[in-house]
Amino acid sequence: MEANPRSTGRLPAAFLTPGSSSFMDFLGSHAPDLLPGNRKLPDGIVEAPHGTTIVAATFPGGVVLAGDRRATMGNMIAQRDIEKVFPADEYSAVGIAGTAGLAVEMVKLFQLELEHFEKVEGTTLSLEGKANRLSTMIRSNLGMAMQGLAVVPLFAGWDEGKEKGRIFSYDVTGGRSEEHGFAATGSGSIFARGSMKKLYRSDLTEEQATTLVVQALYDAADDDSATGGPDLYRRIFPIITVITDEGFRRLSEEESSALARSVTERRMEEPDGPRAALL
Amino acid sequence: MSTPFYVSPQQAMADRAEYARKGIARGRSLVVLQYADGIVFVGENPSRALHKFSEIYDRIGFAAAGKYNEYENLRIGGVRYADLRGYTYDRDDVTARGLANVYAQTLGTIFSSAGEKPYEVELVVAEVGESASGDQIYRLPHDGSIVDEHGSVAVGGNAEQISSYLDQRHRDGMSLPEALKLAVQALSSQANGADREIPAERLEVAVLDRTRTQQRKFKRIRGRQLARLLEPEVTPAAQADAVSNDEAPEDSE
To answer: Which residues fall within 8 angstroms of residue B96, CB to CB, at 6 or more apart?
Structure first.
């Protein structure tokens, strides 16, 4: 898609018309065929790789968002080292469960939407604004979700106004709800949520919060065949990101491997993981 | 029906060019310089909200002198062009050369179409490379021509005088404080020798810094960081401090 539909090379009028600061709105009016939601859908069910478990937890001073590395197609492992957690901008991140191809495209457009707004307006969107934009994008994917190509992200970020980390979860219709403490999405989320429910406390440190999400991912992989656990042999470890008032940071491979190794080692002694008090 | 007066094409173009140049000359000048780690934009701008410099894309910055509404329009057009291109192809496929060409065509078409008022703007499009030799700076005057610049460039009303001042003093591989101070001296020098002082609050400064770890290299320099860079005697240690505190909040001391 060139900037110039005719041969003058001049920016088309749509580029110079004052209007919305949204890149999606611009695409909608200038090149609607490029918007994922405007695609014509064929009949029938499409098989495509799916991403599985994403978990998040807040701690005083920030929020942690992490994901396993497995993508499955039916009962087959489609990819062992897929990345499902991405920075959305400097102060937020998005993790995706669901149809991998569509989800990655959605993240790319979402990142661009936030960046475009920032460049045009000279200021960033509020965290609520970002969460709402993501809602709109999921809603536009509903047609495909009906055919089995659903994308269900988890959005986490640092709210500069409220000075705390926040987590938003979504359903396939774009329904958005804020989660308090911890959240999980994807096929292994039931097990991850149960794990975090027992381990989570509201006064965790950053290190404890990153350990918590690794424990939750381990438990998800333990019981859900579509979620991959830490692969020590191939050196494939979960992607763990931390967002604080200093911005987005992805743990290095060294850091995440150290965490995954220590959790795995403890599980050799206690396969079911840490125990919570009965009362 | 009355017969319109005949105006020769030369005369018509000269009139339009003069009109545009006068408009640009009313605004304040700005300068864009290469330094060791990138490209610095410096201009006098009393407004904190209405910028002369801005980010277009990862490695590409934009500077403009002249009429605000016209260059703002072009800036947003450029952001849309860059974002659309990066979305369609890849982020690496967005280049300053491509953007400068689109701006040149746009300005050129407007300048030579009789029905439209020529834009009273002069633009600079700059892209920071992996090393200084990969830096690109393009100056785009109101008529849609492109000038490929090296080292330093000035645009706006007083551009010629500032350019010659910079040409004599700018050299490759200057540190950021050196380049910044040179830019401020150039902006405050007057033809009659009576230099005026531009306080730091009235300066708008931004850099495209190739050493930034982020993909997006554009960064505004304000407040205390700007004051530190403008301090008269900069020891090598303080200089390193100013650069390493790049991302730190204001109270980093």
So the answer is: B59, B60, B125, B126, B127, B136, B138
Q: Does the domain at residues A49-269 carry the CATH identifier 3.40.190.10? A: no
Structural domains for chain B: 16-229 (3.60.20.10)
Distance from CA of B77 to the nearest CA of A (A): 5
pLDDT tens, B22-81? 999 888 899 999 999 999 999 999 888 899 999 999 999 999 999 999 999 999 999 999
Rg (CA), chain A: 20
HEC string for B30-99: EEEEEECCEEEEEEECCCCCCCCEEEEECCEEEEEEECHHHHHHHHHHHHHHHHHHHHHCCHHHCCHHHH
Residue B205's identity, in one-letter code, is V
What are the beta bridge partners of residue A183? A56
Q: What are phi and psi of A176, to 5 degrees?
A: -115, 135
Nearest CA in chain B to A19: B76
Question: Does B80 sit within 8 Å of A15, measured CB to CB?
Answer: yes
What's this model's pTM, rounded to 2 decimal places? 0.90
Residue B154: both structure tokens together: 């000035």
Distances (CA, A) of B128 to A112, B59, B133, B215: 21, 6, 9, 12
Catalytic annotation, pick one of A8, A52, A173, A211: A52
* Number of other residues whose CB lies within 10 A of the CB of residue B48: 9
- Secondary-structure percent of chain A, ordered helix, strand, coil, rounded to 5: 35, 25, 40
Q: For residues B117 and B22, what is the distance between their CA atoms, to the nearest angstrom? A: 13
How far, in Å, are A70, A168, A239, A249 from residue A62 at the CA level?
A: 26, 14, 17, 11
DSSP state at residue A127 = H
Structure tokens at A228: 């991959």
What ipTM is given for this predicted complex? 0.88
For the segment A161-186, the average pLDDT, to the nearest whole number, is 96
The dihedral sign for the CA sequence B78, B81, B85, B88: positive
Domain boundaries in chain A? Answer: 49-269
**A278 part of contact set with chain B, CB < 8 Å:** no
Selected for mutation to probe chain B from A16, A34, A245, A249 (highest B CB count within 10 Å) is A16
Mean pLDDT of A76-94: 96
A3, A8, A120 member nearest B84 (Cβ) = A3
| CA B83/CA B41 separation, integer angstroms | 22
Cross-chain residue pair A15–B81, CB shorter than 8 Å? yes
What are the C-alpha distances in Å from A93 to residues A63, A124, B145, B171?
Answer: 10, 14, 42, 42
- Structure confidence by residue, pLDDT tens digits, B222-242: 989 999 999 876 455 555 555
